[in-house]
Specification:
19% strand, five-stranded mixed beta sheet, 22% helix, alpha+beta, 98 residues
Length: 98
């Protein structure tokens, strides 16, 4: 079971109170996690990745085992602690401003 931690605004949009638990078949990659997340919570489609092209939205970052994996290939395998559910996969809303 994969654990996914979402920022507050995405949890509110999906009607969630806490973290998301996802069951994945096949390799555990960022692409697979986001596909499963959007399939289970269709209201999140287009909020994490653009509808066309699937690129990440500019103010979101992805973290696995304390490492920023935002710029890693989307189909790269994530670390074993993420795949086993020992560690959560974080989607973090970046803060911008001046």
């Amino acid at each position: 079971m994969i654990q996914v931690v979402l920022p507050a605004h995405l949890r509110a949009l999906a009607g969630l109170q806490g973290d998301v638990q996802l069951e994945l078949d096949g390799p555990v990659t960022r692409q697979a996690i986001l596909d499963a997340l959007e399939a289970r919570y269709p209201m999140l489609r287009g909020t994490i990745r653009h509808h066309v092209g699937g690129e990440r939205r500019p103010l979101l970052r992805f973290f696995a085992c304390g490492e920023d994996v935002t710029h890693e290939p989307a189909d790269a395998p994530l670390p074993e602690p993420i795949a086993s559910g020992a560690e959560p996969f974080f989607i973090i809303g970046a803060i911008a401003g001046g």
